[in-house]
Amino acid sequence: MSLGIEDVTAPACCAPLSGPPLDADEAAELAKVFKSLADPVRLRLLNMIAAAEGGEACVCDLTGAFDLTAPTISHHLKVLRQAGLIEGERRGTWVYYRAIPAALTRLSGLFTLPAPAPA
């Protein structure tokens, strides 16, 4: 029969799901990034760009995947650029986009388990 007393000397059941605590400025900055990803179109665009062969995608290849106008796609890409998630390079009449690896690593690092301590 348990009396509801927790053994605080026992090891925790689970490791925390994040890195070090964020300060207020980091949290505000990351909130803007997550807000940019809160749109399904932008989330899909980032995924398509990051998964593209050769690590980059032409805007001409991205627009066909959506039932949206080219200016609307351009707006979504601009939001992702402003959030620091992608960068673009103009080649002739087309712009080629690639994900910024450090930005994606930073996001994924917020929710990864820390490496276990050596035994």
Give me a quick take on this structure:
By secondary structure, the chain is an alpha+beta fold. It contains 5 helices and 3 strands, in the order H-H-E-H-H-E-E-H. The relative contact order is 0.17.
What key attributes describe this structure?
119 residues; alpha+beta; Arc Repressor Mutant, subunit A; three-stranded antiparallel beta sheet; elongated
Describe the structure.
It is built from five helices and three strands, in the order ααβααββα. By secondary structure, it is α+β, with helices and mostly antiparallel strands. The chain has a single domain, classed as Winged helix-like DNA-binding domain superfamily/Winged helix DNA-binding domain (Arc Repressor Mutant, subunit A), CATH 1.10.10. It has a three-stranded antiparallel β-sheet with strand order 1-3-2. The longest helix has 14 residues, at 24-37. The two termini are 34 Å apart.
Number of domains: 1
Structural class assignment: alpha+beta
Tell me about the largest β-sheet: 3 strands, antiparallel
Task: Provide a count of the helices.
Answer: 5
Report the CATH C-level class: Mainly Alpha
Strand content: 5-15%
CATH superfamily: Winged helix-like DNA-binding domain superfamily/Winged helix DNA-binding domain
Name given to the CATH architecture: Orthogonal Bundle
Number of strands: 3
Global geometry: elongated
Q: Write out the strand line-up for the largest beta sheet, numbering strands in chain order.
A: 1-3-2
